[in-house]
Amino acid sequence: MHIIEQMEGLIKKTSDPIARMATAASLLFHKMEGFSWVGFYILRDGELVVGPYQGPLACQVLEKNKGVCWASVNRMATIVVPDVHRFPGHIACDSRTNSEIAVTVKDKKNKIVSVLDVDSREHDHFNKLDARYLEKIASLIFD
Predict the structure, then answer these.
(1) How many structural domains is the chain composed of?
(2) What pLDDT does 65 receive?
(3) pTM of this structure
(4) What is d(CA 82, CA 100) in angstroms, rounded to the nearest whole number?
(5) Alpha helices, DSSP H only, in 37-141?
(6) Domain that holds residue 20
(7) Is the dihedral angle over the CA atoms 8, 9, 14, 16 positive or is it negative?
(8) What tens digit of pLDDT does each residue of 84-119 get?
(9) Dihedral angle at the C-alpha atoms of 116, 121, 125, 130, nearest 10 degrees?
């Protein structure tokens, strides 16, 4: 996919993960149709704290073990949610969000350090192909 090639070219300029997250969030937000919020929640001291993002204001800290991002961390897997209003414990940072995908970001030691979170105002916006490409982008953060 062209966006992955573009991302690979852009992130070569730095090895700093925060700069790479900021670049990824901006690129995805501005290039992908239907993405209403794109950002990273960083796992810090047992909390998911908002990191670089694009879109409306975000929740600064996500309630522990609640919502899609925490489900992704706890299951150690990508979570695709076609309708967030049916997801148990969903955290509504933006009430206009209807679907969501959360992808774990791992460091070089394969430890989860962050979550790439993408929202859409459309129901059922994300699929397995989106998951695969977003997982590839997430893998580039600490590559």
Answers:
(1) 1
(2) 95
(3) 0.96
(4) 7
(5) 67-75, 128-140
(6) 2-140
(7) negative
(8) 999 998 888 888 999 999 999 999 999 999 999 999
(9) -20
